[in-house]
Amino acid sequence: MAEKLQPLSPYPWAELYDIESGVKRLRLTREDEGPGRPPKPVKRIKTSITLTDEEKRIYEKLTYTLGSKLHPNKVTKGQVIGLALRLVDSKLEALPSSLDSWALLARILFEAEAESGKGG
To answer: What is the model's pTM?
Structure first.
C-alpha cells in the first residue's frame, strides 16, 4: 500500500519554528546525534540590532504574548523578528514603486490593514 504523503506547507518556516519550539519533534537516529549537545534543528545566525525604548517594549511584549499563546512551547525573540520580517515582506507588492517618507509608508501599510479589517 502506498504511504500517504503530507502536502507541502505554504509556510515551511512555520514548520521549522514548530520543530525549534518543541511543537514537533525532529527524529534523529543515534548515528546522527553523536557525542555532546545535539545540534539545533534550525540554524540561526547571530546578529546585533539597536532598538528604541518603544521598539524594545513592543518586541518583548510580542515575545511574551506569543509565548503565552503557544505555551508550553517556547517562543524565541528570533522567531518574533522572523515573523515580523515575513509580515512586512508579504506587504511589499502593495507598495508603490517609489516612496518619499516613512510616514507615507506607514500610512499605506497601516491604513490598508485597517481597511481590510472593515470589510467583513
So the answer is: 0.71
CB burial of residue 80 (10 Å; 0-12, 13-18, 19+): buried
User: For residues 56 and 42, what is the distance between their CA atoms, to the nearest angstrom?
Assistant: 24
Give the DSSP H or E segment for 84.
helix 77-91
Rounded Cα–Cα distance for residues 74 and 20 (Å): 8
Q: In angstroms, rounded to a whole number, what is the distance separating the alpha carbons of residues 61 and 63?
A: 5
Q: 76-113: per-residue pLDDT in tens?
A: 999 999 999 999 999 888 899 999 999 999 998 888 66
- Band the pLDDT of 7: cuts 50, 70, 90: low
**Which residue in the block uniquely carries the three cell numbers 525549534?**
20
